[in-house]
Amino acid sequence: MYIFICNLSLNGVYGSTAFYPNILANLLSETPSISRTGCLTQIFFIFTYGSFEYSVLALMGYDRYCTLMYSSIMTPCKMIQLLVFVYTYPICINLIHLILTIRLPLCGFILEKVYCDNWSVVRLSCSDVSVNSAFGYVVTVTVMCLPVTVIIYSYVRILAVCLRSTKEARAKALQTCTPHLLSFTNYSIAAFFEILQHRFDLSNMPHVVRTMMSIDPLLVPPLLNPIIYGAKLQEIR
């Protein structure tokens, strides 16, 4: 479990590194801007950060499932194999997604968001983007929906067992799973809003609200996760 918490923390640093330098530079500049290369690089790092976050959260849910359901601890070999997979697959699929974006000619150069994301850049293209849109759904399903399914399945099984267990067992399960559920819920709400913002017109929503919700996945999890796990897991202190 602690290996996964460490990976979650390192991923928060990784995502913050992709976001903060540019946003701080733009705050100090009279004309906020970013080069196309810099924008595409930021897209790759931010999207892989989001994919890693969900993948690691899915692994943590699976780990809780194995521990509470079968009283077994994941072996180091299996842990390494799973970590290699959850890092390799998002890199590969997001790299393909980025290549599809790079090939598009751009007819505009103004982004409505404070950082670069793939769909905002695709919208600036004056050519057919149906391939990008279709592949975007594939990315969403594989890097978001599948991990969410794993997490929900794990907790449904855990809940079913807890309902038949003693009060002490339920208390232990609650203490073990609460930090993970808080992290998962916070990130899922922000990620769901991002999908809605990409696929639907939310221009009637106040710009400040859209901006704050769009940067929530980059700001809140790296700050909230250490507090959640530090407060709930006494062994960390």
Main traits of this protein?
mainly alpha; 0% strand; 237 residues; Olfactory receptor; elongated; G protein-coupled receptor activity; olfaction
* Uncertain ranges: none
Shape: elongated
Helical residue percent band: over 70%
Taking the sheet with the most strands, its summary is:
none
Structural category is mainly alpha
The number of helical segments is 7
End-to-end separation: 15 Å
Rounded mean pLDDT score: 82
**What is the number of strand segments?**
0
Order of helices and strands: HHHHHHH
Q: From the alpha-carbon coordinates, what is the Rg to the nearest angstrom?
A: 19 Å
Q: Which band does the percent of strand residues land in? A: under 5%
Protein name: Olfactory receptor
Pfam families: 7tm_4 (PF13853)
Subcellular location: Cell membrane
Main location: membrane
Please explain how this structure is put together.
Residues 1-229 form the G-protein coupled receptors family 1 profile domain. Belongs to the G-protein coupled receptor 1 family. The protein is 78% helix and 0% strand. The protein has helices at residues 2-27, 36-70, 76-102, 118-122, 130-163, 167-199, 207-232. The longest helix has 35 residues, at 36-70. The protein has 237 residues and is mainly alpha-helical. The relative contact order is 0.13. It is built from seven helices and no strands. The protein is elongated and about 60 Å long. The model has no long low-confidence stretch (mean pLDDT 82).
